[in-house]
Amino acid sequence: MHKLTTLLLCIISTTAFAQTQEDHSHKLARSLKFPNVPGYKVMKCDLHMHTVFSDGSVWPDIRVAEALMDGLDAISLTEHLEYQPHKADIPHPDRNRSYELAIKEAKDHNLLIIRGSEITRKMPPGHNNAIFIEDANKMLVDDSVAVFREAKRQKAFTFWNHPMWMAQRPDGISTLTPMHKLLIKEKLLDGIEVVNDGSYSDEALQIALDNNLTIMGTSDVHKLIDWTFGVPQGGHRPITLVFAKEPTIEGIKEGLENRRTVAFFKDLLIGRDEYLIPLIKESLKITSAKYLPKTSVLELEIENLTSATFTLQNRSKYTFAENSDIITLKAGEKTKLQVKTKDKLSSIDLNFEVLNAIHSPNSHPAVTLQATSITQ
Amino acid sequence: MHKLTTLLLCIISTTAFAQTQEDHSHKLARSLKFPNVPGYKVMKCDLHMHTVFSDGSVWPDIRVAEALMDGLDAISLTEHLEYQPHKADIPHPDRNRSYELAIKEAKDHNLLIIRGSEITRKMPPGHNNAIFIEDANKMLVDDSVAVFREAKRQKAFTFWNHPMWMAQRPDGISTLTPMHKLLIKEKLLDGIEVVNDGSYSDEALQIALDNNLTIMGTSDVHKLIDWTFGVPQGGHRPITLVFAKEPTIEGIKEGLENRRTVAFFKDLLIGRDEYLIPLIKESLKITSAKYLPKTSVLELEIENLTSATFTLQNRSKYTFAENSDIITLKAGEKTKLQVKTKDKLSSIDLNFEVLNAIHSPNSHPAVTLQATSITQ
Amino acid sequence: MHKLTTLLLCIISTTAFAQTQEDHSHKLARSLKFPNVPGYKVMKCDLHMHTVFSDGSVWPDIRVAEALMDGLDAISLTEHLEYQPHKADIPHPDRNRSYELAIKEAKDHNLLIIRGSEITRKMPPGHNNAIFIEDANKMLVDDSVAVFREAKRQKAFTFWNHPMWMAQRPDGISTLTPMHKLLIKEKLLDGIEVVNDGSYSDEALQIALDNNLTIMGTSDVHKLIDWTFGVPQGGHRPITLVFAKEPTIEGIKEGLENRRTVAFFKDLLIGRDEYLIPLIKESLKITSAKYLPKTSVLELEIENLTSATFTLQNRSKYTFAENSDIITLKAGEKTKLQVKTKDKLSSIDLNFEVLNAIHSPNSHPAVTLQATSITQ
Amino acid sequence: MHKLTTLLLCIISTTAFAQTQEDHSHKLARSLKFPNVPGYKVMKCDLHMHTVFSDGSVWPDIRVAEALMDGLDAISLTEHLEYQPHKADIPHPDRNRSYELAIKEAKDHNLLIIRGSEITRKMPPGHNNAIFIEDANKMLVDDSVAVFREAKRQKAFTFWNHPMWMAQRPDGISTLTPMHKLLIKEKLLDGIEVVNDGSYSDEALQIALDNNLTIMGTSDVHKLIDWTFGVPQGGHRPITLVFAKEPTIEGIKEGLENRRTVAFFKDLLIGRDEYLIPLIKESLKITSAKYLPKTSVLELEIENLTSATFTLQNRSKYTFAENSDIITLKAGEKTKLQVKTKDKLSSIDLNFEVLNAIHSPNSHPAVTLQATSITQ
């Protein structure tokens, strides 16, 4: 009886203590920023990560805190189903546990938690994530194809993880195995990671394009986001931008299923033109356009509304007064561009190749920035 | 059988995968630095912290990694004995488990892991740590005095945690209870935290001095060192500098038992004169002493070999050519000081009050910096 | 004729060219900030500097630009009367020329230009400035006392420059010569530099106090403010804060004549209590005062409205929950201070010694920060 | 007599005073760096700038100090011959005066001072520099062609300044006038500024290529290098890299006359392939080449030895494990590049387009980086 009281008091006070620790991390302006596009909410998602409930090094609360600091809209804690190195310490039979703890942690925040699991096999099919599942426990299925069928029975969205992973692909080059071809053919596999952790794969992108798979970028973080991606030094985790009709879990799922994604990795934006182009158009805004006094040189001010620094290559007939054909538009900043138009124009179309955007291997999309209502 | 092979492969490869994640944290020059003093190794110790094995948010490997980045010599994972909020997930009955995982993680590194536990009670006696214990499981003793006797039976060093903790002390003022007096009298309590997390207590320091307790400073970290102490913004965790005859666990224990400590918190050094003074003398070195040409103004170059920025107040008869009586010597830097000596001296004693050192509440030690072999 | 046209065109276009050079300097938030005090405008003045019109290295326009960047209210270009090393190139006989060019340059800005000259003699009387003069040319008087009489005839304010200058004082120690005593006695010398360039002098401060001279701090810049004072690295030039009834040249003069100044050098504020204390009181504002929930620990938020980082030493009976007796309030920032009041108070007086303020050698003023309307 | 002594003393002491001002600027690691290439010293030159001796705002000593901080090998103070806005104050009839003062200032330093003048006319021929002249005074010739003949009589190297200057070219587009064609035809004009201050001109580059003119880049600084080019914020002045057989004034002249230059502006390197390619090859060095264990992924470490950040576009058949086809090699840093070679190679040729190098408008040179002796 006496002991019970003691412990009860301890529980209350120790919890309070942990919470009063000052958190300096909010001082960093690290929140990732991308604009919405017409018709879609652009949802910032990291859909592959780990905690102590598989082979990660943190409790789920840290993953939630990291996501909030990074300004994400949704995460999924995709613990390995078959790989449980902490099992001696965390023998919990319920594979949904990590999800449940994260849901609780995030309850007062604007962060969606998506239930997911990593199907962890040798190659083929290697590692694959199933997200939006109903019950992770039912995913413990031996057969490597059958587990995908179970995922689909649960209406999951599935994607192939790090197909370029050198531990399973010593040449680092993603190629489809017969089993992957089967999974795709039977609509059991929906997406593919083109970016995982610190790796980008041109070959994975080609597979996505050739097979109509969803282009994914994930952190696959095991330790700390800050350490792995050098956040205090200006780095960021890879994420998937999902173009959702509604800012909900269902909206993200529908977007993923319909291939409406762009992966964000370092300064790169990787996706299909139909999503890349509108995203770029909303990302770069001409905020001022006026001729320099007594000249036919047009000065534009272009605002980059994103966390990606853009590198543009001039594909117009015009030349610039202060730049070569390569233009850098720093993340979150306004940049001035002086265009020699020879005659004074009332509107102008500037064509660029967007070098930090990729729509197929070694190939970059073209965009037109248009200035109207130019001050003469 | 087939499954076994699959899983085995997964274990190997997934582990490899986790380890190849790039770690950017080493780019920070965050390693804490203090010199040794004659007769003693100055051991940088954080002897109070938590992991998922009590109410912390990380696996022990993160605590080891943080300590290595901070350049510590020793840590103790002092999980709460009686407070186990993760028990539903981590029901492991062995209270030594956190220690064992840390030992394994640190095996290839120059970091000592000290076995310890936090005795977690309501006030009195509040929370207390027992470190250098033999078996944490045997510390699960109901009676609040008996548990200290068990600690001592195991030859532990014990200290009172955050005696100024507002959850147990609403006025924030540390005072000894009858139970604490008893523990001290019976030599069951050896030390007291004068610094815990973000708090410093003048009253706790006075208790240490009045009762010959070891002066302790600890992080008591629950989440991440980087976030709690703003490391990327230049902050650091509190530590205890232990003056050890040998750089071993036994050496640290002997040093703690003999009260040979200085707590380091922000830029403050808190301790008894007999350890503070030699530490300060080794910390500040005159690296050059010469008269400015054609003058009787002596220019000294003083190197601060520590991670603490020093603030000195002039207590000599001399005045300075570029400073008032308050001198700042930045952490890790060399600073020039021009002293007006009127006559040319061949040696000089400069007396200072060290404002960032504390030997009793509101009181700062005096040191003399001596320059000999002055270039005329 | 033809040539005339050519040259005329060149003049117009070349001027335009020089002005279109982009200036990146405004990106630095370097403007010096101090609040006004009841009854007075606190005017930021640098009243000792040089251009190519004596031994400086810049045209007057640079001095104006530097002052605007530093947010000064007034400057004086005090060219050496007798020392004209550029005379071979700039033989202009009018010693007011530098002033006139500066006036023209500053005409569209909120910067007062004060006419002044440096009387440049060997010791005694060394170098002295006369400002608010009517005509520098009439200051070319041989006799070292007579030139002060001429200055006074012009209603000038005069001050002794760098009395600690090692070129004239090999011991770096300011002392009054008989000639200085005479000048003071006859009211021909009004002020004394306690700070000049990188030097501060306790002895000069004592002379100011003993002889009722105005306390001055000046840059005495010859090359570039940015280089000499490390502005990009966070440094600043020394200035004199003049407590003026009106923000005009006349107001500054009246303030100087009545000894109403504080010198600002590095983080130091040097002056008489009657001006230091009100300045400090306006500089440090308690912006929030509330008890931490369920405690008797009062959390204050103190805003430092100045460009000087303050170092306060606690002289109250209270202790703090996160600090020793030494408190640092960073320039321009808000700092939290947790005060252990034991009982809940409705108002509190906190007494501090202000270590970065100096009212006499090695002595610091006391201030009381008062919090009323405390949230319980 | 007495006065003479006084003044003499003042001269000595005041000079000493000016020189003891502390200079913080050396703390900036701003020195521009480029490697030599086989057969040539790469000399860093700024051959167009102004002081108070025409329409600049500083004495020549500041230009020398700025050049030393920037690590330049040679400068020319090219005062306007015909535009002398400070004439009322600086009536010095000798147009070589600025040069002579700079020579004196630089005498103990490793900085070459080249005698030069700016021929300052309306368009045509606009502004042109003549450097390596013998006597600026003799350049005061009315006729705009005759002045070039005089320059050539003095064996000068001449170049057309800012042909894109909007004050003389309202469309900002450089075109040759009949007079320029004549000057070129008669070998009176040798070079053309492709970069001036903050401007780059594709059209000027085309003129240089079409007419075999030397490609020049200059600061044309009037106020301060630090302010105009944002040096504390990481900017730098434009310079011309001259490929000289000897590191002498004669060597620079011979290099300029034989068109051996590359202009450096922001991160751009603008020049002819025969100089650009060797420069790039010496600038980027593969310092390590080894296969990642158990893979066919080759990890290269590439060191960028210059002050220009390189942007490379992959033109090989290989793909990279962590990068798209666009690679950034930061100024002065080592960068790792993982190349998927499929088979293990003993040597490799990597082809890149160098986007920050320009050999003709909108066109970038190709380079091959070769790794031999690869660790398997």
Would you kindly provide a written description of the structure presented here, covering whatever features stand out?
The structure is a homotetramer of 376-residue chains. Chain A has helices at 2-20, 60-69, 97-105, 146-153, 178-185, 202-211, 225-228, 249-257, 273-283; strands at residues 41-46, 74-80, 112-120, 127-131, 157-160, 191-196, 199-200, 214-218, 239-244, 261-265, 268-271, 284-291, 297-304, 310-314, 319-320, 326-329, 334-340, 348-354, 357-358, 366-371. The model of chain A is unreliable at 1-28 (pLDDT under 50). Chain A is of the alpha+beta class and 376 residues long. The first copy, chain A, is elongated, with a radius of gyration of 24 Å. The termini of chain A are far apart. In chain A, the strands form 3 sheets. In chain A, strands 1, 2, 3, 4, 5, 6, 7, 8, 9, 10, 11 and 19 form a 12-stranded mixed beta sheet that branches. A 4-stranded antiparallel beta sheet of chain A has the order 12-13-17-15. At the A-D interface, strand 7, strand 14 and strand 15 of A face strand 7, strand 14 and strand 15 of D.
Our estimate of the beta-strand percent of chain A is 25-35%
Largest interface: A-B, 68 and 69 residues
Overall strand count of chain A:
20
Q: Note the run of SSEs of chain A as H and E.
A: HEHEHEEHEHEEHEHEHEEHEEEEEEEEE
Please give the share of residues in helix of chain A: 10-25%
Q: Radius of gyration of chain A, Cα only, in angstroms?
A: 24 Å
Low-confidence stretches of chain A: 1-28
Helical stretch tally of chain A: 9
